[in-house]
Amino acid sequence: MTPHSLLDAILRGAPPVRRRAMAKAITLLESTRADHRVQADALLTALLPYTGRALRLGISGVPGVGKSTFIEALGLHLIGQGLKVAVLAIDPSSSVTGGSILGDKTRMEQLSMQEAAYIRPSPSGGTLGGVAEKTREAMLVCEAAGYDVVIVETVGVGQSETAVHGMTDMFCVLQLPNAGDDLQAIKKGVMELADLVVINKADIDPNAATRAQAQITSSLRLLGFHGNPERDPHDGELWNPKVLQISALQHQGVDGFWAAVCDYRRLQTANGRLSLRRERQALAWMWERIDFGLKQAFRAHPQVRALLPQLQADVAQGRIAASTAARQLLAAQAGGAPAVAHATETAAPQPAL
Amino acid sequence: MTPHSLLDAILRGAPPVRRRAMAKAITLLESTRADHRVQADALLTALLPYTGRALRLGISGVPGVGKSTFIEALGLHLIGQGLKVAVLAIDPSSSVTGGSILGDKTRMEQLSMQEAAYIRPSPSGGTLGGVAEKTREAMLVCEAAGYDVVIVETVGVGQSETAVHGMTDMFCVLQLPNAGDDLQAIKKGVMELADLVVINKADIDPNAATRAQAQITSSLRLLGFHGNPERDPHDGELWNPKVLQISALQHQGVDGFWAAVCDYRRLQTANGRLSLRRERQALAWMWERIDFGLKQAFRAHPQVRALLPQLQADVAQGRIAASTAARQLLAAQAGGAPAVAHATETAAPQPAL
User: Fold this and answer.
1) pLDDT score recorded for residue B328
2) Which residue of A has its CA nearest to B184?
3) CA A350 from chain center: how many Å?
4) What is the ipTM of this complex?
5) Are strands A55-60 and A170-175 parallel, antiparallel or unpaired?
6) Mutate which: A51, A223, A294, vs B, most B CBs within 10 A
7) Which residue of B has its CA nearest to A281?
């Protein structure tokens, strides 16, 4: 299949043809072969005018919080409303463990049987940046194929929440009702990203869930997650993170969740924040990939490779200032400077001083 | 003064000679002239073995919270205990406004008159990274000159808190007692960095201060700022951020603050976290400067300069995928690829498809 016929099948194919074309396109985008990469870039550019209409929804939460059950309940609810739903994932651990989330579709058995659902496991291997790039590109394929909601799931590993936040319109954090408990184990900095906090399994202990809802709401407010001081007075009304209770297993509260998502989308469209967020995300993504490429070339440079291990050890041990080491390494790559003797030879105080 | 005599004066000069040498050394380190930079790097490397014994303390808080009053009270308290105190600052706005913090020493009138105190305003101009680098290097000069405590002050502008957190052993956030109030205006993400939260001006409304202390303590716990799930079970006891009340103006609670700092230092030394933090900071600093240098060279490349404005606009407007643009720009710098026509010419769907 050529990229042109692939594009045609994604845009206009009958459901089974379209699904096969999507899978092929995503596989092409995930390929690291140089000739594939050229085709993949041509495909991406051709797809792009058909993207951007979907709602991009990030879902995060620690293992055991019930992410799959929630996504399945939400997906079925949306399909019931006539929407098409794609589910992607970012799981940087999948290269090591073979995938801890979405590795098998049986976890979302009912949803995966729906014609209006498309579920793709996390790309595996490589850096988080690489995995995130493949997921971003897969998202564009889903959008061009007419999916109305693209859900990107992640589990709290490394910086994966930041990556998902950086590619979605709305970032939701799932919590358990025992919020006051140390077992909660939410990662520092994740709540900062939340546009919506969902207390799942609220039916197990309704009192605890209500307490957690009140506590999290006031904590978000107290720690500056509401009322951003950098807000421009000319902005329209801004969104303040909300905290909801649901029970995905009982299918309770999923409609309320979706109503909050729709409120958010309406507000962010009206105040211009949705397009601003996407524009910033696209530029940040470009610079993230440029940074990665520059650093990769830097590390591969023969002079840098020769100097880096010793200089890195010297910096870690405090034998040379970090800024001095950085200047030496940059000069080595540029080839403009003579090879520099490493720091330990000059770091010792000179008795003559 | 040669770098060698400068080093000697910093290490062994009588107080007035030492102070003049410190000022000269910091000015040399701040210079952008290439020949000065070579001398500055030689000086830094020679200073380094005499650094690292000071406690590095970051202080942040919004304007009006009383940072200067607090730092002055703390500085005088420490000098009363026979310690030498240096106060540096990072104020990225200073290049625009001429300096909003520490621009004039009269703000810390009593402290600045002490022989055991050294106060230096924020370096001005350039990027935050550049300003932070100069402050880091000035910190090393202060340490070599025998200062026991180096305080780095910042005001909540841009990413300056992250920069100060990245160069200090302990990061403290000052708050007002009206914590529940939206006027608090603390920036999203700053509390995440705090090792110690200080409620200043507690004497104005003791009840509000006590309420704020309880609320902030439980919020920090609830939002995952305590009990890091990534902690290694083999770690010793870990520090949990504390919340204290003081009144700097009344000199109340400054001794309690210092006791908490000493507790922190003892614990972080015992569990190995202090040296680990410094090692990570030094390596992160090195890579931050390398990244900056690589990106500067990238932006200055003629082929990149020719393509960047249009590609950046195409990415922002969604006419080309960010990853495709990044690959085109990297190829342009590497010189390996032909000049690429910009995206708009190929983005429109081909009717033949």
Assistant:
1) 95
2) A224
3) 52
4) 0.85
5) parallel
6) A223
7) B316
